[in-house]
């Protein structure tokens, strides 16, 4: 132990006396000063060590910087061929990083070379009118893109005098447009931009429009998308239109060459409410003779006022329509009764509202009318959160000889209806896939009976003999027991999870059953040595 840390004997003796003398007090003060001087000396040593430590840390950091620089000289990013780098940069742009060409150009000389010498990296021209000097930025981007096909995006949320000049600059290169996207919170600005697109666009394939209605638009009597009138008439390759708006009223003609029309209706951020009208939707469809794919989606729980078509005898003939998706309040499904669609292959009917507690009569009647007057070779039928009566199911299934896949969500379909599908001569003979979720009346024994019956060999086969069921999806069906699931998995593919692609329930989060699947897996030792099942997808 250091002597400085020991207590001298005379100091110890003072601890046992009641009151120190003046001489003893002086010795105590002298002892205190001695220790204080020692502490000061130690503090100086500590500060010196800290300074040394800081110096060493700084030297260490300098070496780390040099190591990073040296590693940067031999990194894969520097050794990649410029065309590979350019491909990566292009993927970044396509994923929505609009400033990628500028950002990567500032990393190093090789990246700058790859960005500036491959024009396609600059082919996505994103013009935001709120950014500084959009005119110069647009000119620069077009210069760097050279002769590449252009994917043009115009974001115009603010009032600016430069908008017209920017549009004119872009229209000078209209022959190179591959796609056009217009984003504006003002319907008036959207119409202004679209109405100026009168130049020939021989390579244009797709248009996306995202807009909203302002109070001033309604006050001026301009609550419709009118900008398409006379525009894009010289766009022979234009096929797809994606429209996102708070209004579905499109005045004037959408380019008649459109084959794929998607309408996304959402509430106005300014709470300006405009009604949906059946006559307007039907007129829009009637003006598109080449239409092959039609989808109308309303955001969840959005229910604007709806005015149905008053002329019950009105019919719209869509000779080329192959797929239709209606994600709307159930009353809008009445539109189906006005459509004649002989080539329809896929029909998806979804409610954007909470499921009804009873079958929706109008949907059932309209679906029956569509099938009767069109007689389509329908291959996919989906009913999501909208149900039919047993009578409607029976009638529809009798007319679906080409049906290959049936999807039901929140359905009260009965065992009696399902039994119509059983056997080699059952209805819907081409049916090979069933996706059943939240079917509250369906029993597992009926499903097992259905699948087994369609495995039976027809003693007198004909062209309409039933094909086997290749896959059954069962999710949250109350009367389908675990043993039923195992029995199904023994004779066909039984799936208890969502489809890997294009599954609407994935975004809704309504069909997660992870606990059930885990319990089933553990209880029956699935996936280990205790089972031989190979057809159960968990």
Please, could you describe this protein's structure?
This protein has 538 residues and is α/β, with parallel strands linked by helices. Among the domains are: 3-74; 77-148, no CATH class; 404-457 and 464-538, no CATH class. Helices cover 37% and strands 16% of the residues. It has helices at 9-16, 22-73, 76-79, 82-94, 100-105, 109-116, 134-145, 163-171, 187-195, 215-219, 278-286, 361-374, 390-397, 415-419, 444-453, 482-491, 504-508, 514-523, and strands at residues 124-128, 150-155, 177-183, 206-210, 240-245, 260-265, 276-277, 293-298, 306-307, 316-317, 323-328, 339-340, 346-351, 380-384, 405-409, 433-437, 471-475, 493-495, 536-537. Strands 1-2-3-4-5-6-8-11-13-14-15-16-17-18-19 form a 15-stranded parallel β-sheet, covered by helices on one side. A two-stranded parallel ribbon has the order 7-9. A two-stranded parallel ribbon has the order 10-12. α15 runs parallel beside α16. The longest helix is centred in the N-terminal third of the chain and has 52 residues, at 22-73. The mean pLDDT is 89.
């Amino acid at each position: 132990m250091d002597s400085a840390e020991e207590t001298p004997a005379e100091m110890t003796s003072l601890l046992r006396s009641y009151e120190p003398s003046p001489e003893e007090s002086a010795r105590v003060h002298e002892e205190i000063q001695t220790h204080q001087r020692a502490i000061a000396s130690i503090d100086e040593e500590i500060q010196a060590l800290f300074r040394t430590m800081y110096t060493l840390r700084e030297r260490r950091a300098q070496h780390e910087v040099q190591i990073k620089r040296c590693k940067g000289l031999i990194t894969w990013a520097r050794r990649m061929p410029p065309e590979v780098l350019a491909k990566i940069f292009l993927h970044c742009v396509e994923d929505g990083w609009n400033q990628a060409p500028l950002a990567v150009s500032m990393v190093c000389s090789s990246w700058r070379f790859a960005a500036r010498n491959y024009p396609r990296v600059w082919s996505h021209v994103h013009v935001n009118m709120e950014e500084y000097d959009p005119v110069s930025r647009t000119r620069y981007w077009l210069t760097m893109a050279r002769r590449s096909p252009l994917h043009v995006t115009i974001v115009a949320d603010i009032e600016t005098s430069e908008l017209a000049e920017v549009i004119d600059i872009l229209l000078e290169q209209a022959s190179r447009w591959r796609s056009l996207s217009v984003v504006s919170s003002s319907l008036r600005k959207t119409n202004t931009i679209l109405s100026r697109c009168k130049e020939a666009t021989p390579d244009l394939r797709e248009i996306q429009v995202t807009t909203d209605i302002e109070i001033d638009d309604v006050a001026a009597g301009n609550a419709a998308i009118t900008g398409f009138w006379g525009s894009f008439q010289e766009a022979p390759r234009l096929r797809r239109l994606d429209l996102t708006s708070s209004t579905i009223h499109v005045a004037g003609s959408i380019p008649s060459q459109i084959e794929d029309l998607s309408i996304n209706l959402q509430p106005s951020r300014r709470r300006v409410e405009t009604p949906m009208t059946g006559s307007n939707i039907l007129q829009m469809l009637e003006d598109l003779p080449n239409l092959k794919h039609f989808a109308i989606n309303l955001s969840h729980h959005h229910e604007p006022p709806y005015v149905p078509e008053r002329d019950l005898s009105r019919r719209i003939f869509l000779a080329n329509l192959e797929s239709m998706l209606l994600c709307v309040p159930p009353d809008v499904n009445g539109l189906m009764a006005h459509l004649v669609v002989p080539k329809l292959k896929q029909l998806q009917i979804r409610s954007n509202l909470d499921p009804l507690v009873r079958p929706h009569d109008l949907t059932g009647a309209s679906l029956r009318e569509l099938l009767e007057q069109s007689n389509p070779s329908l291959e996919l039928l989906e009913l999501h959160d909208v149900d039919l009566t047993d009578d409607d199911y029976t009638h529809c299934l009798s007319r679906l000889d080409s049906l290959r896949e049936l999807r039901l969500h929140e359905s009260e379909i009965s065992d009696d209806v399902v039994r119509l599908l059983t056997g080699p001569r059952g209805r819907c003979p081409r049916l090979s896939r069933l996706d059943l979720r939240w079917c509250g009346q369906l029993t597992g024994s009926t499903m097992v009976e259905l699948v087994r019956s369609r495995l039976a060999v027809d003693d007198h086969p004909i062209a309409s003999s039933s094909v086997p069921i290749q896959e059954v999806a069962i999710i949250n069906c109350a009367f389908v027991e675990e043993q039923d699931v195992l029995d199904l998995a023994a004779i066909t593919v039984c799936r208890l999870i969502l489809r890997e692609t294009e599954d609407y329930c994935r975004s809704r989060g309504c069909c997660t059953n992870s606990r059930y699947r885990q319990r089933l897996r553990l209880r029956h030792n699935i996936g280990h040595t205790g089972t031989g099942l190979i057809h159960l997808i968990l």
